[in-house]
# Entry
Amino acid sequence: MKKDGSRRQFLAALGALAASGAIPVGGALAQAATGGGKSNRIDVHHHIIPPPYVAAQRDRILAGADIPDPASILVWTPQRAVEEMDKTGVATAMTSISTPGIWFGDPAAARKLSRDCNDYAAQMGRDHPGRFGLFGCLPLPDIDGSLREIEYALDTLKADGIGMFTSYGDKWPGDPKFAPVFDELNRRKAVVYFHPTGADCCSNLMPGIPASAVEYLFDTTRAIMSLLYNGTFARCRDIKFIFSHAGGTMPVLANRIDGFFGRHKEVADHVPNGARVELTKLHFDIASQVNPSAMAALLNLVPITQILFGSDYPYVPIPATAFSLDKYGLPAADMQAINRDNALRLFPRLKT
# Structure
């Protein structure tokens, strides 16, 4: 797969800045990241690459990794992750499986792989107390298997939430087929984290442009739209939703989408309080999105209380977002909210 040149250049430039001293490293970066020597960030967009996942899907993982050296992510280990967290002031990382996920058409294989990955992540948490949380992965679109894995992840492993993708083949999460899963998560008042992927329809629309370049952002918007249109947000009011990368293009399109529901009375009952009201209840991480355009649009949609720190590690170095946020110029109270306090409301166990 041809890699996205702009992202490759960005990562190369980041490395050059670190090497030149423009980005502090080691303990100096941890101090710059937190305003002192104490680690306090909670990273809600932090991936793991467990050995069972590599064994089952190595070629797909490498093909989907839009980074200059895809094989570099295969050297991931929990200890490497802890070392990088320590350098960047990350106290706790909520772990999840990234694209391409674990579903490739075989329900039995997906059930086994989701269980193996969840068990591995839970053991990481036990091996490194306080450093790792868990968004349990599901074998969606296998509904029965997913309901069983929700029970296991939340009741047995004590997962902090459930991780999903913005689409599954030709279906987005608001599809009625997925309603039993969301109804169960709503009953449990769960946190649900969404990571982008490329839908079947749109992953190869333009030759030479990988899905991660722009399609991931559009698929995040489609996922949110599907949850609005099919009434999932209005029905499942006890789920705490988190979307990656500042919600993709949704902050820019929010008024247009709100107008759509206002003009089409036949779907207005799906969002009885209006689309914008539902959108303002969502949470968004800012992985790779700390720039004036994205932040202005996001802050126009939701208050600071709905914004969370996320890194996209190991696919993107933690400083790519951490250092950008530190230099962005937000008030200290807003920085504390994004780095930690907003996540503490979602994951109160981390207060202890």
